[in-house]
Specification:
Strand content: 15-25%
Largest sheet: 11 strands, mixed
Number of helices: 14
Number of strands: 13
Oligomer: single chain
Radius of gyration: 21 Å
Amino acid sequence: MIIDFDSSSPTPVNIKVLGVGGGGNNAVNRMITSGITSVEFIAVNTDKQDLNASRATQKIQIGEKLTKGQGAGSIPEKGARAAEENRDELAAALKGADMVFITAGMGGGTGTGASPIIAALAKEMGILTVGIVTKPFLFEGKSRMSKAEDGIRMLREQVDSLIIIPNERLKLVSDTPITLANAFEKADDVLRLGVANLSDLINIPGYINLDFADVSSVMKDAGYAHMGVGHGTGRDRMTEAVLEAINSPLIETTINGARGVIINIFSPPDIGLTEVDDAVSMVTAAVHPDANIIFGVSFDEDLSDEARVTIIATGFETLATAEPREVPQPAQAHSSGSAMAGAVLQQGSTTTVKPFSTPFAPAATTPVGAPVAAGMAAADSEDKARRLISDDDINDIDSILNIFKKRG
């Protein structure tokens, strides 16, 4: 039998990124400014003024009747009701997507309350749904952190995988003092890297190719998971890149015991077999002996003597946590080291809770024992918050409160 094969290019995977609330809208703007073009951007907000400032190609104002375009007032229940008010419009915006990223800053009103509603819609439509959210800094207060943790528990039940970036750990990835203004920019940049690396992995053909099916096999109903991005230069570029991808100060987990792993390498064509073997062996030594490891390589001549590695690991029997690690000072840092980004993806076994503790939010199922939601011990939270507030970078309390309001 002769079979005619279609030689035309495959249809690109339809990926949509929804920025929800002030923090999500800020992250989307940064992604657009950075030049990400392989995805469609949608801004969702209750605050009409913030929405008008968005660079997204599609903008959806939710809860106009409820909030009169004035925002959700840092009340997650109001954000949830606002999303329900525009449920049909949100579903129409999601139509046609193969994969959806929902990005938000948790702890405010719109992002925290509306994100789980949007995620549930996407899942109902059979779309691979990934949440990428930030947790507040400790100095933002216990109330905002509590709202964030409630929102994370509710969102986690509605998505296939959830990437959580604890803002508090952003202080550990810079060897120079970080200002309040660029702290939030760094958080947005981590969100950008998460979306960019996954969309590139899916849509850019590689020498050893990875595709949407590979990503789906690892991220759909994933359980606990880990994602990191590393970069290295020079003779040890591959091992440096892998070490950064699995040992970032931002990451609260290790890859120990993972049963599903994607390793994607971006390198120049002259990459040596021994380099790749040594680097990948570092990963296989840490994961489960029977782990399903999917391996991809993309060549980029512009990288010269550089290498970049993306690692996604899932299927942990138990969650191994890593202690925070300080970044070396410039005199101690390796000459070819570089900054990287990583985050925690979570899902787990379930129990029923009522998020936000209000009549507005429906009962939802949430994973038991989520380590990120547990956060940091309350005993030292007040001390850290006190120390942060007294830093030289924070001179104007009113400006801080204004920034927090915009992030909601």
